[in-house]
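ESCALATION

Customer reports they have been waiting on this structure for their group meeting. Please prioritize. Original submission:
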Amino acid sequence: MSQAALAEPPAVLESKMTKNKQPARATAESMATRQRDISVSEFFAKNRHLLGFDNPRKALLTTVKEAVDNSLDACEEAGILPDITVVIEDLQPDRGREVKQSRYRVTVVDNGPGIVRKQVEHIFGRLLYGSKFHRLKMSRGQQGIGISAAGMYGLITTGKPMGIQTRPNANRPAHHIELAMNTKTNRAEVTTDEETQDFPLERLRELTPGTRELAASGQFLSHKDYPTGTSVSIELEGRYQKGRGSVDEFLELTAIANPHAKITFVPPTKVSEEEEDVPLLKNKAAAAAAAANAAGQPEVAPAAPQPTITTETGGVIVFPRAVQELPPETKEIQPHPKGIELGTLLQMLKDYEQDERGGTLYTFLQDKFCRVSATTASNFCDKIGVTSRTKVSAIEPPLAEKLYKEFQETRLAPPPTDCLAPIGVRQLLAGMLKGVRAEFYAASSRDAEVYRGRPFQIEAAIAFGGDLPADDSARVIRFANRVPLLFQQSACSSFKAVTEMSWRNYNLQQPRSSLPAGPLVIMIHMASVWVPFTSESKEAIADYDEIRKEMKLALMECGRKLGTYLRKRQAMRRQGERRDIFERYIGEITKAIHEINGADQKKLYEALLAQARERTAIADMQLDEDGKAIKEDPADQEGVIVLENLAAVGSSPVAASSDAVLHTQTKAERAMLDVASRAKDDSPSLIDVAPVKRLTKKGDAPKKREGKAPEAKKPEGAKPAAAKPAAKEAPSKPAPKAPEPAASAPKPKMRLVNGKLEPVKEGPSLF
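Update from on-call: job pushed to the front of the queue and completed.
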C-alpha cells in the first residue's frame, strides 16, 4: 500500500476497501429508473399458456376456435345464417410423420357482415379491445383477446403477419390487409393494405381434389354464398392430430350446439400418428352405408327416418345446416342491483356524474339498473335519507354504502331473460341427431335463474344406446354460450354436476363419485350474459352453487325420461323371452292334452298362442322419443286394474265374457279359483303358480284372499267364475264389509279337501 493511501483517514480507507469487496446496493432512485409500463400484449406473449397456447396441438385448436366463435357471433348479430369454411394447410408436407409439430396456415372464411376498414387494426392487432366486454348480452366472445392473441402467437412462432380480407359491401371490392402486432405498444403495424376482388380466395377452391369437386358444383366458397364476409389467415407452429381435444371434435360439437350453421372443414393432408384416431361421436351407420356403396353392395335401409348428417367428399367434411331458423335475437340489459359490489357502485356513481352533469340519484337508479322502476327508485331514496332531487355528486361513500345494503335487503324482480338465446329442446335434439347415432334421445331446458345478479339458463340432453360404446364410461360434452369446452373437464361445474348425480335411480351403473357406465352421451349447455370461466382460456365453468344446482335439475329431467325408457325396454325384453318359452312348449302341451282328452289340437294351439301373446303384449310395445309407449295402455301401469267390458260385468255377471271377468281378477285369485275348479277331476293342473308368490310381495293378493275365504267354503265349486263378480259387488255394501276383526289376525293356512278350502291348524302361515 502506498504512502498516500496510508495518509488517508481510517474511515475513508475502510470505505474504499468495502467498495472493492461488495457490489453497490440498489437505491430507490436506481430502482425507479428500471420501472416501466408493461403492455397487456407483452404480458400474454410471455404467459401465452393462460390463453390456451401452451402446446402446439392446443394452439392450433385455440386459433380455429377463436376465429369460428367470432364468425358465428357476427353472423347471428347481423341476422345471417352462418356459412363458415375452415381450411388448414400443411406448409411442410415433406416432413416425417414422427415430427412433433409443423407449420400450418389456418384460414377461416365466413359470410357475415364484414368489418369496416378503420376497425381492422383494432380488432386484429390489439388485445382487450372489443364491443362485448362491457355489455350484458349473451355472446361467445367476451374479453376481446382471442383472435388477436392467435395472430400474436403466429407472429411469435413463424414471424408471419396475419392476413385479413373483409368485404362489408357486396358491390365494392374487398380489403386485403396484412398486419403484425407490436407487443411493446399493443398496437398493430400494417404491412399491406390494398383492395381486391379475390374474395373468397380463389386458391382455396383448387387446394385439394375434394375442394375442386365441391367448388365445381357450387358447394364450396361460391360467390353466391359469400357476398360479404371476412377471411382470416394465420401461419403458426402447431400439430394437427385427430381424437379427443382435436379440431375435428371441436367443429363436430360446434355443429351440434349450432344446428343453424353450416360448417365446411378442409383438414391437412398429414396427420400425426402418435395417438389413435378416436372420434367422439362416430357415425358408424353412415360410414357403413358409404362403405357398402363403395363396394357396390346394396345399402341397408335404416330403421327410422335419418336426419341430416355429416358428409365427406374427397377429404372435405361438411357439417350441414339442420335448422333454417336463427336463434332468438338477444337484447342488452343493464346490471341488476343485486349483482354489483360496493366498489362497482361507487365507480358507477362517479362515471354518471361525469356523463350527466347535474344528474339525480333518482334518474341514475332507473337509467343504470334493470328492474328498478320509478316507485322503486323513490323508495331507495327515502330509505337512505335523501330526496328524489338529490344530485349524484352529493352521494358520499357512507350514503353509497347504505344504498348498497338496501340493494341486498330489498326484494326485486329477477333480471329479464331476453338477453339470452338458449339452444332450445328442438334444436338440441336436432343437433344430437346430426352428430350422435343412438337409439334414445332426451332433452331438457330449464327456466332462467340468477347468480350474482346475472341471468343464466341451463340446458341438458342425453343420447343412449345405438352405436355408442357400451363398455366405456359416459361421455360428457360441455358448452358455454354454444361454444364447446374441451379441456379442464374435472375442474368444470358441468362435470361435477354429472358425477354428483345418482344415475342408479335411472337403471344405469355408476361407480362411486364417478361417471355412469354405459352407452351414454351427456350434453350440458350454459347460456349467460357473463359465463364465469375459471381462466382466460375459457375452458371450464366456475363452480357456483346456483349453477351446479340447475345443471343437476336439468339432468334429472333427462334421467327420468331415460329411466322410463330403460324400464319399459327391460320389460319388453323379459316378456319377449317369456313368449319364446311359451311358444317352445305350446306344441308339446297341445299334443299331450290331445292324447289325454282328444281335444282339437289346432284350436287348442291357437288358443294357447293367443293367451301367450296377450300375456306378453309388452314385447310388441313401441316407444316414442320420450321413452313412453306410443299407444299408452293403463294396464301397463303398476297397480291398475283394467275392465275391458265394464258394462257387461256390471249388468250381468253371468253373461259377462270370461275375458272381462279374468281382467277384473288378480293372478292369485285366478290361480286359486282354477285350482279349486280342477280339484274334482283327476287331470293334472297345467298352471304354474310361481307368479302368485311374486304378486304377494306387493300386498294385493293377501287382501283379496281374506275376503274370498268365507265364499270358498260354500259348496259352489262347480262355477268358480261366478264367485268373482260377487266379490266385486261387496264394496257396494258397506254394512257387512265394515266389521273385519280378522284383518289384524294372521290368516290361517288353507288346503283343498274335496274341492273345498279348509284352514290348517298346524304349520306356519304362508301369507
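Sent to customer with the following note: The chain has four domains: 43-280, 337-409, 433-625, 646-732+740-760.
Escalation resolved.
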